[in-house]
Every structure is written in C-alpha cells, then in structure tokens.
Amino acid sequence: MSQEQQEFGDHRTFLPLGSVVILRGSVKKLLIVSRGSIVEDAFFDYGAFMYPEGMIDANIAYFNHDDILKIVHEGYADEDNDLVLEILDDAYARFQRQASAAATATSALPSVEDADPFASVRDLVGDDA
Q1: pTM here?
Q2: CB–CB of 27/70 below 8 Å?
Q3: Which domains, ranges and CATH numbers included, belong to the chain?
Q4: 34 forms bridges with which residues in the sheet?
Q5: d(CA 50, CA 64)
Q6: pLDDT digits (tens, 9 = 90+) for 36-65
C-alpha cells in the first residue's frame, strides 16, 4: 500500500480488463474496457461497452465497483495488471484527496448571501463622481 493510500485511508480493487459484468437494476452484460476514468470531475472505476455488441458509436458506460450485481467473467490478469492496479489505486487516493481539498476550499469561500452583489457597481459609480 502506498503512502497516499495510507494517508487517505482508502483502497480500491479493480477487475481486470475484459471482465464481463451485470450492473444492479440491469440485465444487460457489459465488457470492461477501461479503469480509473475521470469524467466531469467524477472518478469511475470502470468504463464498459455492451456485450456482445461491443463499441457502438463510441458509447461507453461508466460505473463503480459497487454498482456491479454479478461478475459473469473475470478477464485475464498477470504481473503487469498488478502493477497497473497499484497505479490505479494511487490515482484514486490522489483524486479523493484533491476532491476533498477542493470541497474544503469551496466551503471556505463566502456564500452568495454574504457577498455584496452591488459592490462593483458602487465602485464604478464612485470613480465617475
């Protein structure tokens, strides 16, 4: 476990590429083709294409491990995969730390109610007078 994982206290596990899963609330199988994607400021464990259709118009479904209802088939894994899993786990811990810091920074900003919406207008009027 890396220093970042220990500091943040979170550890992710990832299925190998090529795994086929069924998500909760679905009957359709998905083939995992990517791991550790960040889409619109959200971290997703997996990206997948429909199985057996494959890639259709570059549509990809993003989801997390907790969304999986059933693992139909686990893909191939070797030592190279293990190395990538360590990198992905570190990336997830880093993403979580940055997201937490950003949330803290945002909450420290004055709220809209606290801000004076007319301050810049008054500044302009004061310069012309």
Answers
A1: 0.70
A2: no
A3: 3-93 (2.40.10)
A4: 47
A5: 16
A6: 999 998 999 999 999 999 999 889 999 999
